[in-house]
Amino acid sequence: MKNYSITLDENSTTYNIDIIDKNDKNIYELYFEKDYLYILTPLSLDNSSFMKILYPKKSYLLKVDKIHHHIIINLILLTLINLIIALLFSLYSLNPLRKSLLMLQEFMRDIIHDLNTPISSIMINLKMISKRSEEIEMIEQSVKMLASLHKNLDSYTSSPILLKERVSLKEIIINQSNFFISIYDYLDWNIAIEDNIEIDSNYSAMERIIYNLLNNACKYNKTDGFIKIILNQKELIIINDSYGIKNPHKIFDRFYKESDRGLGIGLHIVSKLAEELNIDINLKVEDKVVKITLLLNEVTFK
Asked: Is residue 97 included in any domain, yes or no?
């Protein structure tokens, strides 16, 4: 057997050449040996022999590693370029949306400001009417609900500083319960309140929280349903019947609604205000009965 060393490509890569006897291996197919890669080619002048062209395995692995390295660098560069393009495109695309949101927020502030005067005027004039009637009572209730919606929008669009004070939860619960009982008198109401429970909180914020919780409990209740309110030193619990909640983990999310009714901000405002007042909220839904618990341990005066 003779050994030859010749150059086969323009980059001067050296291959080893052997002339071997013809065997049953396929020509032009790549084979691996311990230290070499090789292929077999026929010799045109000698049908009984093959030319075996060998390439060092070490050189092959180095080239493969170099190609892999080059591919990885290119992929990283392409990924970075794509990320930069995506970021620039996102900023460009979101800019009109950001402007629209700012305009919408400003528009809502203007509406809230403009609503304040007529609502206050209607409430004052209703109180001045000496002759009371069922129609007047209904108008007054409707105006109060409109005023509460106004306060919700105000809470949503602004972030006022909540000054702490001694707050009587019994007073807020009784006032809000009486308001909703007059509207939802067909529901079975059960109220159990311990006396002399005061918390270190903000009166207006707690009023918003309890109003929104009771409003939600009434609005999504059954026609023959119930509402139960329990207040003690440790917690305020509101339990109500319902038609079921599809996604309990989402009900405190902004704009989340399970029906076409409402704006989807009431319970989000509850969550937002409770967090600012250091009050934890627990939600439990079992057999279509909804139980919301406000934990008062951190804010109750002992």
From this structure: no
Burial of 121 (0-12, 13-18, 19+ CB in 10 A): exposed
Indicate whether 168 and 280 sit together in one domain: yes
Per-residue burial over 158-187, b if 16 or more Cβ lie within 10 Å, else e, is: eeeeeeeeebebeebbeebbebbeeebeeb
Beta bridge partners of 294: 236, 281
Find, among 214, 219, 222, 203, the residue nearest to 277 by Cα.
203
User: In this structure, are residues 32 and 46 in contact, taking their beta carbons and an 8 Å threshold?
Assistant: no
Q: Two tokens at 286?
A: 């079992």
Last residue of a domain, one of 61, 78, 93: 61
How many separate domains does the chain show?
2
Domain that holds residue 288: 161-295
The whole model's pTM is what?
0.56
Q: Domain containing 240 — which CATH number? A: 3.30.565.10
17, 35, 61 - which closes a domain: 61
| Cα distance between the two ends of the chain | 103
Q: What is the pLDDT of residues 201-226, one digit of tens each?
A: 888 889 889 988 998 899 889 989 99
- Per DSSP, helices labelled H in the chain are 57-128, 134-157, 169-183, 203-219, 266-276
In a domain, 88, yes or no: no
